[in-house]
Queue: 2 jobs
Job 1
Amino acid sequence: MALGRRNQERQEELWVATQRLPTSPGHAFYEKLNRLLAEAGFDEWVEALCEPYYAKEGRPGIPPGVYFRMLLVGYFEGIGSQRGIAWRCSDSLSLRKFLGVAPTEESPEHSSLSIIRERLPEEVHHAVFVWILTLACEKKLLDGKTIGVDSTTLEANAAMKSIVRRDTGEDWKEYVTGLMREAGAVGRDAEPTVEELKRFDKARKRKKVSNDDWESPSDPDSRIAKMKDGTTHLGYKAEHAVDLKTDMIVAAEIYYADEGDTQTVEDSVQTAQANLTDSGSDVRVKDVAADKGYHSAKTMETLAQDTPFRTYFAEPKQPAGQTHKWTNKSREQRDAVYANRRRARGERGRRLQRQRSEKVERTFAHVCETGGGRRSWLRGLLKVGTR
């Protein structure tokens, strides 16, 4: 066999027979996923769901089934941006087959994905999420009696250096310059250099960048938060409620990054119960496991009195020699804390905590790390939640 040499310049052919077009056997995973979606009638269902949001006449747009498959490709391939998803689908023959795009057709562009995302409201994306839970319920992959809750931070598509004061609209440079002039570190008409600004800002005391005082003009819904790697960025909080028996995510909520876990846990569990009900399951959530970040006396009292959920929340360790003081607390609050402590320290409570740390953290690894969702390329609480 002679050595083949790569052509540096190739003249494109004027006409190519369809028999000569390249083909692909397809990826085994995507082939099985397509068969599963076809058996469940996903394309017919989602087209009927999205039909009210399209015009009755005109050039046909991208089928909704193709749009949602491209979102799945982004998750499975670890691509966070729509531009990257569109390029990957255009470049891969197996993914084009998964989408149902013929070799002679152009795959959807990233701008088309943006248009469809703006066209379809959050309710449609949530309906698709519930449809998947319904399919899981039919396949006996959903239990729902015991769920684990945890949260993580997502980096927003906005830079810290772009934040401005909520009261005056000043950016960081204008704000620190004003402080220097008030302190007499620079003349009234003088403009300090960037190095002088940094030096003064680093040395001043009682320095705090608060969400009450600062906001991002490009993404007002983002909040200043500490990421999992210890850095400080503008971001959001993602909270998952996971079925601890089957590993299924039954609720995936997005909140402001400065909302505490004790503020959002009840909403997430109630959303999980609503999703289970909408999926056709008659199971009621009974037990909820969470880490110590979700524990507070007020939260324990609220969940014990206003909900049917039984809590297994890890309790923060008290400093040596200190105990809880119930002087100004109600008896119901004290009883709720003691009841949760008794359950969490029992054999079942310890087992649920091990399952929670294993299975809920795994979902964040799938969505944020493997799925490319740690950094959001969209802006606004609604768009990030939809994505």
Note: The beta strands are 146-155, 164-165, 214-215, 223-226, 232-243, 249-256, 287-290, 310-313.
Job 2
Amino acid sequence: MLALSTLAIFLQDTPDPSLATQTVPAAQAPAGQQGMAIVEILHNSGPVAIGVLVLLGLLSLFSWTVIFSKLRAFSAARAKSARFIKAFRKSGRLSEIAAVAEQYRPSPLVSVFNEINDEYQRQTGGRGLPRNPVGLERAAATASSEALTLMEQRLTWLATIANIAPFIGLFGTVWGIIDAFHGLGTEGGATLRAVAPGISEALITTAAGILVAIPSVVGYNQLAAQLRDFGSRMDDFGRELLNAIENAAALQPSPPQASGLNERPANAPGPANPDPRRRVF
């Protein structure tokens, strides 16, 4: 009796010989059929998967909007900064630069220049050496920090989207797998044909999350590198402006010929400004 029972169990577990002779075709489905398969998967997806895909689509649209807007703004700021530096180094008077500085917005160097100029005017009234050079340095650092903060607006959203998008997609995948195995339990047949549609619907959300995260990571890293470059340029410009103010004040003749850091009279003899890096403010 034991032998007969063992034989019966073996026959139940033995697959159908007709199925063993069948072979799977090696040729892959054409690209058009693969595209139709993806459309069919999306059409058959459940409400949770559709909600996850819609959320990921909105996050992707927002991240691309931030990336393109920041690239355009940084490009304009870089071009205006180059023109402002050129005008600054050609000018011989602080008042001339202050009169045209606003034309070079959105360059962050304009904010640094205005902050230093305002602090210099408060200390000296535009004449002579600054009484507190450290105050000018602090004004330059404050202006640089405020300009960088303004340029960083909405940039942190890229890092946030890059971090959460894969987890949102993974949530859709886990939920789809749970739903697929729940369907297997209700049907009672553990076959690949029964589980494959649910698994494919679940995995597509993970793929969507990765597709959303990759551009956000790349965009954030590139824009952060440009921000560091802007910060270095603002620091260099602030030091150059402070040196120019001190050099111009030191080159002025002592009283009574001149009092402080005055503008050079139009009828004064000699060259107006032989060295463009040493300005007469």
Note: DSSP finds nine helices and no strands in the chain.
